[in-house]
Design goal:
The chain is mainly beta. It contains 7 helices and 36 strands.
Amino acid sequence: MLAVVGAAALVLVAGASWELPSAAGGENLKPPENIDIYIIDDNYTLKWSSHRESVGNVTFSAEYQTNIKREDEEANWLKVPECQHTTRTKCEFSLLNTNVYIKTRFRVRAEKGNSTSSWKEADSFIPFYRAHISPPGVRLEAEDKAILVHISPPGQDGNMWALEKPYFSYTIRIWQKSSNNKETINSMSYPEKISELLPETIYCLEVEAIHQSLKNHSNYSAVQCVSTTVANKTPVPENLEVDAQGKSYVLKWNYTSPNMSFRAQWLPGYSRSSSGSHSDKWKSIPTCTNVQTTHCVFSQDTVHTGTFFLRVQASDGNNTSFWSEEKFIDSQIYTHLPPPAITVTPMRDTLLVYVNCQDSFSKCDGLIYEIIFWEDASNTERKLVKEHPEFTLENLRPLTVYCVQARVLTTAPQNKTSKFSETLCKKTHPGRSFMTWIITGFGTVFLFVVALYAGRSLQKYLHYVFFPPLKPPPSIDEFFSEPPSKNLLLLTAEEHTERCLIIENTDTGAGEESHAPEEDLRKYSSQTSQDSGNYSNEEEESVGTESGQAVLSTAPCGSPWSMSCPSGTVEDSTCFLGNEKHLQTQPALHC
């Protein structure tokens, strides 16, 4: 018995030890898996799956995070109120206060008692690109031959498409209830009036919303049917057309019954961007009120928006028709393009042409400019087309008159063209004359010679720097090493008067020889110069008496030279230096 009790106690203890980790620490509680988020408009559906061992008394909680931070920063997680401690594996909620254009992340965990699993995070995403579009709201209003389709954009009161309403278009499919022949109508505005229907006939329709930039389509709305009313005694005006004359619009329509009066109204195009009734937003056109004709004229200044709608109503005094179909007008299509103004500036063989579109700066954008030009003496026209108002007409003949005209054009969908501007004629300037060519040629030759001379000078300078001349022999180098004032090759600015000793021939008899005292010769063989100092030439002093000739040796300017005086009188003195002789402008000496 004790053995049995002991065995049972052992089993209980073993069982308690097997379940304890899950209850106390949650080591066996696994996080959810396969997290998925589905969004339609502003409605979120968060789904996940759990493990089998986690089933039973297990709840789940979810959190979300926006404006995701870096990994090294602490995350700011917010609780999803509709997804706290839920026993289901999905929850629905709306996040109307969040920014749908930034990244968002969700995470889910399992809970059991005081134990929780780790968080399981889903990949981050941008809700705007994940969201689906719900079908638009539709409300129908019947007339005798028309149905007004009032459309509410998807997510009318939500945050997802609050800024996207102008980007939605709609596809309407309509058919008679008795037939399956469906007609498709594309609409950019609402309400949309579908005309030319049969009175007292049941029509059914459905509407699809399309986001033009995302290319996302909604499902079609639920099918709705409505019956048109009994035919009105007064038919509606038909086939509205608009034309432009100068700065005015001409509105025309068709009507068969005589003796009727008409009135027209306009609605700003931006009013159609909001849903609801627009009956109080239509405005009367003063010049198109109670007119007796099937047309009226009004100024373009009456309508102050770029896009608008027009409608016309007929009346015979007692009966009034329904409003006609609404005609959408884009003012850019009907705006008159005035002819441009041009300016022409002549050059030598060129004309510079500028085209002014004569309109406001904004309307000048996106225009195409076209000019034609020709010689005044010729009818041959040439054409240039650019997307810029400046033209350069090149390679023209000098001293020739050219005429220019211009016009402006718009691209699709308007495809409008203005009339041509007034003709403007200008004469080009003279070309280069013959004298100009001669001067240019001489200038080129002169520059060439200067460049050649500069090149040779540079060559000589470089040759002197890198290949200096050899040193002269010592005897010549010693001579040129004298001070410059002692060099006979350099003439002084001031003339100097030298003192010379004149020895006259004396006849003492045949064979008799006379010599001047040696000390007297030394006394007179030296001179003093203002510029070059004292010099002595004793070795070259000699007197020849046998030939009847006196030789005088002096040293002007510091260089040895000899002057010979033959018998008689000389007018000048001649200096001999080496093999050269120099004529000195000294007073005449008498030998």
